[in-house]
Amino acid sequence: MTNKDGRVNSPRRPGRIPGWRRALLAGAALLIAGGCSDEIPTSEDGNLIPIDAQTVQVFLDWEEFGRDFRTFGGFSTPAALSTLHIAREYRGDLDAAALLRFAGLPGSVLVRPPGSPTTQADTAYVPVGGTMVVRMDTTRFRPEVPIELTASRIISRWDERTAGWAMAVDTFGDALAWPVPGAGESVPFSTVTWDPEVADSVVFEVDSVTANAWRRGDVEERGARISVNTPGARLEATTAIFRADVRSQVNPDTLIPLAANPLNQTTIYAPEVGVSPDEFRIGGAPARRATLRLALPSRIEEGNPVCAAVACPLELRPERIVYAGLVMTTAPTTPAGLAPVDTLRMDVRPALAPDRLPKSPLGPSVQPSIRRIPATAFLGDAGVTVEVPMTRYFRDLLGGVEPEPGEGTGVGESSAVPSTLTFLSPSEPVSLGFGSFVGPGSAGEPFLRLILTLSDGVSLP
Question: Per-residue pLDDT tens for 186-200?
Answer without folding.
Answer: 999 999 999 999 999
